[in-house]
Write a structure and sequence with these properties.
This is Butyryl-CoA dehydrogenase. By secondary structure, the chain is an alpha+beta fold. It folds into three domains: 109 residues, Acyl-CoA dehydrogenase/oxidase, N-terminal domain (Butyryl-Coa Dehydrogenase, subunit A, domain 1), CATH 1.10.540.10; 109 residues, Beta Barrel (Butyryl-CoA Dehydrogenase, subunit A, domain 2); 146 residues, Up-down Bundle (Butyryl-CoA Dehydrogenase, subunit A, domain 3). 53% of the residues lie in helices and 15% in strands. Strands 1, 2, 3, 4, 5, 6 and 7 form a seven-stranded mixed beta sheet that branches. It has a two-stranded antiparallel ribbon with strand order 8-9. Strand 2 and strand 3 form a beta hairpin. Helix 7 packs parallel to helix 9. The structure holds flavin-adenine dinucleotide. The site of flavin-adenine dinucleotide (FAD) has 21 residues, from strand 1, strand 3 and helix 11. Flavin-adenine dinucleotide binds next to strand 1, strand 3 and helix 11.
């Protein structure tokens, strides 16, 4: 067992950190105001190969593992979580294709998905499905060589941007079983009636999607005939990777909050000395540093397991539960350290506090993660 980063991993960490500080940070104010991500930024990240980090070279990836993937996600989220998340949703659709598509589909879709002019979406949620997969209403009906898709998805990230979408449908001929289909966004019958105005994660474009007689080739069924009606397998397998991304984002934000609080505590003077001298501040920072350390180690261990292709359900749920609650605690304590200024937009901590809340909600609420975390023990 080796807990050290390799030379290559250290170089990756350094280059993502530099890129995030030099290229993402200056755009944050704009993204927070305009509530979107400039396409040029996504393109730059794609050109650096970071959308393909965890995929084999033969599919257009860089042949690394999920450990490198989480290193990239942590560093990006440390600067701006919305950008990390825009990229990670692409990664979740990539996991969908990589784990479940046929070899032919991987060769056809992955190189463009990882390197081309688009960013992926993963469309499961509907008005009634939230935490209840059986409430799926969007239908797919086979018509000769095509699928005809009808329905409405809600809260779909990146849906306003071009690229591929993996969509979960009720397969009418299969008695309503779930089937996953790959569709190009923006095709005839595809529209986005709403882009959400959110509490945080302002750089992330999250939309409702209307599907009105959308037609795609039948051969776009993820995994082909063998996977028809097995959409829930696709959902569970892909969201484990989605959860890993959320964990990495939580660690990146927690790290940023800790760094901000430490810096502030050394600079802010009260009663003639920096507040870092007060035991109450030391205690807050001690708690925060502990959460950051444990969360960081947990996410790397889960990423290592993901890279080995091991079953991830319990680990992903437990790591997600811990890291999301850890970043919540850390962001809140950082605000206590930084007092009134933390509540202003002069410091990034108020944004981190808002963005961090999402890690307890999306990719399955924490109440559901608790159930998954206990499931294998109670079987
Ligand atoms: C910014 C953002 C981006 C998103 N991006 C995507 C995306 O790209 N693709 C996508 O498909 N979805 C996406 N989502 C949707 C997200 O994954 C769902 O919102 C999430 O799974 C929770 O569903 P819900 O909000 O409908 O909660 P509900 O299911 O309505 O749950 C509400 C509350 O009820 C409780 N609860 C519900 N069911 C149970 C249960 N079985 N046991 C115990 N308690 C329960 C929990 O406390 C839960 O918090 C996104 C959401 C947001 C906010």
């Amino acid at each position: 067992m080796n807990f050290n980063y390799t030379e290559e991993q250290l170089m990756l960490k350094e280059s993502v950190r530099k890129f995030s500080e030099n290229e993402i940070a200056p755009l944050v104010k704009w993204m927070e105001t305009e509530k979107r991500t400039p396409w040029d930024l996504i393109k730059k990240i794609k050109d650096l190969g970071w959308c393909g980090i965890q995929y084999p070279e033969k599919y257009g990836g860089s042949g690394n593992t999920y450990v490198e993937y989480v290193i990239m996600q942590i560093e990006m989220a440390r600067v701006y979580c919305s950008t990390a998340c825009t990229i990670s949703v692409n990664g979740m659709l990539g996991a969908n294709i990589m784990k479940f598509a046929t070899e032919e589909q991987k060769m056809k879709f992955l190189p463009e998905h990882l390197n081309g002019d688009g960013i992926g979406s993963f469309a499961f949620t509907e008005a009634s499905t939230g935490s209840d997969p059986n409430a799926l209403r969007t239908t797919c009906v086979r018509d000769g060589d095509e699928w005809v898709i009808n329905g409405e998805k809600v809260f779909i990230t990146n849906a306003s941007l071009p690229g591929l979408m993996g969509i979960f449908c009720k397969d009418v001929e299969m008695g309503g079983k779930c089937t996953n289909i790959l569709i190009p966004k923006g095709i005839k019958g595809y529209s986005i009636p709403r882009i959400y105005d959110k509490m945080g994660m302002h750089g992330l474009e999250v939309c409702d999607v209307l599907l009105d007689n959308v037609r795609v080739p039948y051969e776009n069924t993820t995994g082909g005939e063998a996977m028809r009606g097995k959409g829930f397998e696709v959902l569970l397998g892909s969201t484990q990777i989605g959860k890993l991304s959320v964990c990495a984002q939580a660690v990146g934000m927690a790290q940023a909050a800790l760094e901000a609080a430490v810096k502030y505590s050394k600079e802010r003077v009260q009663r003639g000395k920096p507040i870092a001298y007060f035991p109450t501040i030391q205690s807050l920072i001690g708690d925060m540093a502990t959460d950051v350390m444990v969360a960081h180690q947990a996410v790397l261990a889960t990423a290592f397991k993901a890279s080995e292709g091991k079953e991830l359900a319990s680990d992903a749920a437990r790591t997600r539960l811990f890291t999301s609650e850890a970043v919540h605690r850390v962001a809140s304590k950082a605000m206590q350290v930084m007092g009134a200024y933390s509540y202003t937009t002069e410091f990034p901590i108020e944004r981190i506090f808002r963005d961090a809340k999402l890690t307890e909600i999306y990719e399955g609420v924490n109440e559901i993660q608790r159930l998954i975390a206990a499931a294998d023990l109670l079987r």
